[in-house]
Amino acid sequence: MKRFTCGELVESITAYLDDALDPPARAGFETHAACCDDCRRYVHQFRVTIRAVGDQPPEKLSARTRERLMSAFKQRRQS
């Protein structure tokens, strides 16, 4: 099983949610998320965002919504 850092989890979240990680990486992702409150919260927030936005293409989102999402992602990457 691959051991994940917080940064690796952030970089792999879309692959995880798309079920594109191999089994050892998926297990490592889930193990890290299970024991890291910040990452567990991040995965939850990502899922909530996906549900809220749905499959809308970015150009269909309001400029304010796109700006808020990009700001949130940038802040997370910097922390």
Automatic annotation (TrEMBL):
Top-level taxon of origin: Bacteria
Keywords: Transcription, Transcription regulation
InterPro entries xrefs: Anti_sigma_zinc_sf, Znf_put
Residues in Putative zinc-finger domain copies: 6-40
UniProt-recorded name of the protein: Zf-HC2 domain-containing protein
Organism this protein belongs to: Nonomuraea diastatica
Origin organism lineage: Bacteria, Bacillati, Actinomycetota, Actinomycetes, Streptosporangiales
